[in-house]
Structure formats: C-alpha cells, structure tokens
Automatic annotation (TrEMBL):
InterPro entries: Amidase_Cbmase, Bact_exopeptidase_dim_dom, Peptidase_M20, Peptidase_M20_dimer. It comes from the Bacteria. Allantoate binds at R206, N264, R277. GO terms for molecular function: hydrolase activity, acting on carbon-nitrogen (but not peptide) bonds, in linear amidines; metal ion binding; N-formylglutamate deformylase activity. Keywords: Hydrolase, Metal-binding, Zinc. It is an enzyme of class 3 (hydrolase). This is N-formylglutamate deformylase [alternative form]. Belongs to the peptidase M20 family. It comes from Nocardioides simplex (Arthrobacter simplex). The lineage of its organism: Bacteria, Bacillati, Actinomycetota, Actinomycetes, Propionibacteriales.
C-alpha cells in the first residue's frame, strides 16, 4: 500500500469517531467512549505494523520500532483527545502522520540505528480534568499522581476513580522528541508554505475566577440594592479583552458556571476561567495582574468578592536550537515561527528532552473549532517532512 493510501485510509478510519452530527465538531474527551475507541485504533495500528506497544498507568501509549541500542530513543507522535466541539486535526494529525512517516521510512529501506517510538499522550487539551498536557506532565514527573488523582471533571468524577495511576517509565531512554501538529493560526498561510518549524511556545495559563455575590429576586430587588457577581464577571471579561489588545497578547474567558443559573434570579456565584497567553513570562504576569486588579476594583463597586486561582501555568518554552536548525536545514529552509498554543512538546522540552515541532498549514487559520482544516497535499508534505527529519535522527 502506498504512503498516500496509508494516510488517507487512516484518516477515513478516524473521521467518524466522536463526531457530532449537529455541529460537525469532535467530542473526544479522555477516558470516555470516543477517546477509548481512538486508543483501540492506535493499538491496532501498532500491531498491524509489528511494533512493540507500551502503555503507562495513565494511558499514554508508545509503539516502538527498531533496536534499542542504548544510543538514545527518538519519539514522535501527538495526542488523540479534543477540546469540546473541536476540530479533526488538532492532535490526531500528528499521530496519523507519525505512523505514515514510519511507513514511508520503511518503504525507503531505512534501517534505524536508534529506537523510534510513535506516541499518543492522554488529556493534552485538559478538556475533561482541567489540566492541559496532563498525560505528558505525568509521564515526565512534572505533575505527581498524588496531585493529579484528586482532579475532578464537570460531573464531579475524580481522576483517581477513573484510572489506577502510579509511576511511568514510558519515556526512559528518550533523548529526542519531534511532534507534528496542524497549525493553529495563519503564519503559513501568510508565507504560502505547506510546512514549517516552531521555535518556541508562548507562556500561558488558566486561571479560575470565583466571584461571590448574593442571590436575589430579579424583579423586586432594586438595581442599586444588588450584589450581582454577573456584573463583576462581565466587566472582567471586557477588561481582559482590552488589556490583551493593548499589549498585543491573548486573553479569553471561554468557560463560565453560574449559580443558581435561574432566569428570574440574581446569581449568587459566578465561576469563570481565563486563558491568558503572552510573548514572555513577564508580559504574561503583567497581563494577568492587570485583569485581576480591574476585577477587584469592579467587585468593590458591585459589593462582590473575587478570588483568583491559577490552575495551570506554563512558562515560555524555547525548543532545542540545534535540533530545530538541523531539521529546518534538512527540510530545505522551511519557515521558523513561534506558537501561541501549548503542546506536549513543551512539557518534554521543559523536562530536558531536546524537542522540535513541525506544523502543517491550516487554510482556515481556525483551530479548536469544527472549522479547523488541512489539505491532503499539505498533510502529505508534512508526512514527508517528518519522515525526512526522523530519518536524519535514527539513521543518519
């Protein structure tokens, strides 16, 4: 079977899994039916290729190819889970492309002198248990199981009641990681290039805003007598937008929980989650501080209180320069750009594993949405680029 047929068949196999009939988006939350089906597909793809499958206590998967010579293992891959109502390409493109790249390398007669693994990390999006890149964090020890097992989803289900957990040795001996991902912006569109290389990840964080007020009657309570947390939240969301625009950074309130959530009642409590990203650690700290100050000022006027809790914060990650330059040169001088999105690659780089990222053009420029897209020709260019990069690492 040709490389093109391999890629397209794998993509057809994954396309219906977890897809919403109404929106066309994907619901592939970890440890639920759609994501478990994708992991079963991964195991079948590994077995069909005669690869050695390894799984850690958290559900992270690696399919190994080649001899373990002690020269340091090379890892590629991505994740299979999605955000709520997400796109098809964010994550799965990297996994499918990794298997297709391995197939292409074999068809070219590549004989690896280092072990190569195709990985699928669990809960990269943090869409169920709220911790981005949770699987890779657990795999490298950046998050402890004692901490992670107490995380709960929106239904109050505790992670420790979903999986047994423990300790992971999955990445022992891994000395290089290369991740392919669909682009989540317009950089390659503007440069008219199908494939590029990332050089850094912006620092970013998720912050929970708990705004407490007083429940009251929507009709009989005068406006001036209210302690309405919704007003505090609304002003805070506007402040976040303004501060991010003024500084050229990113700030988004994309999730909100209102209690008691009644049409004819002033709410007693609003919980909202801020996603903030900036070009440097100092810029992120300044952005978050400015939004928090404006929230507190508004709360003072509304008679409410605001408590801000950082739930997940990642500092700036610069990918390994030597590895980045080696891959960019091998690919003929492709564009090198930063990314504002978080990835498992950033977690592994932070853990001391030299890491590089390839990305494939997204003609819509839209991600975390059913409108996310990629052309087959660009995806195949990504497969070839990944195969070339990996060949240089495992069979120089």
């Amino acid at each position: 079977m040709t490389q093109v047929a391999d890629f397209e068949q794998m993509w057809r196999d994954l396309a219906p899994v977890g897809r919403s009939a109404s929106s066309g988006g994907y619901f592939r939350q970890p440890w639920l039916s759609a994501e478990l089906e994708l992991r079963a597909w991964f195991r079948e793809a590994a077995t069909a290729r005669g690869l050695e499958l390894e799984e850690d206590p958290f559900g992270n998967l690696v399919a190994w190819w080649g001899p373990d010579t002690g020269a340091g293992k090379v890892l590629t891959g991505s994740h299979l889970d999605s955000v709520l109502d997400g796109g098809a390409y964010d994550g799965p493109l990297g996994v499918v492309s990794s298997f297709a790249a391995l197939d292409l390398m074999r068809s070219r007669g590549v004989e690896p002198t280092r072990r190569l693994g195709v990985s699928a990390f669990v809960e990269e999006e943090g869409s169920r248990f709220g911790r981005a890149c949770l699987g890779s964090r657990l795999a490298v020890g950046a998050t402890t199981w004692a901490d992670a097992r107490e995380l709960t989803d929106r239904d109050g289900v505790r992670l420790g009641d979903v999986i047994e957990g423990g300790e992971s040795t999955l990445l022992d001996g891994v000395t290089t990681y290369v991740e392919l991902h669909v682009e989540q912006g317009r950089g390659l569109i503007d440069l008219d290039a199908p494939v590029g290389v990332h050089d850094a990840i912006w620092p970013h964080g998720r912050y929970r805003y708990d705004i407490a007020g007083r429940a009251d009657h929507a009709g009989t309570t005068r406006m001036e007598d209210r302690a309405d947390p919704m007003l505090t939240y609304a002003m805070t969301a506007l402040a976040a937008n303004k501060q991010a625009r003024l500084s050229g950074q990113r700030a988004t309130f994309g999730r909100i929980d209102v209690r008691p959530n009644g049409t004819n009642a002033v709410p007693s409590h609003v919980t909202a989650w801020l996603d903030a990203r900036a070009a440097s650690d100092d810029a992120l700290a300044a952005l978050v501080a400015a939004v928090e100050k404006q929230a507190a000022d508004r709360a003072g006027r509304d008679g409410t209180t605001v408590t801000v809790t950082p739930e997940s914060v990642s500092g700036e990650v610069a990918f390994d320069v030597a590895l980045r330059d080696e891959i960019a040169a091998r690919l003929g001088g492709v564009p090198v750009l930063p990314t504002q999105a978080g990835h498992d690659a950033g977690i592994l780089q932070d853990a001391g594993i030299p890491t590089a990222m390839l990305f494939v053009r997204n003609p819509s420029g839209v991600s975390h949405s059913p409108y996310e897209s990629a052309e087959t020709a660009d995806c195949l260019a990504g497969v070839e680029a990944l195969a070339d990069a990996l060949t240089g690492l495992v069979a120089p």
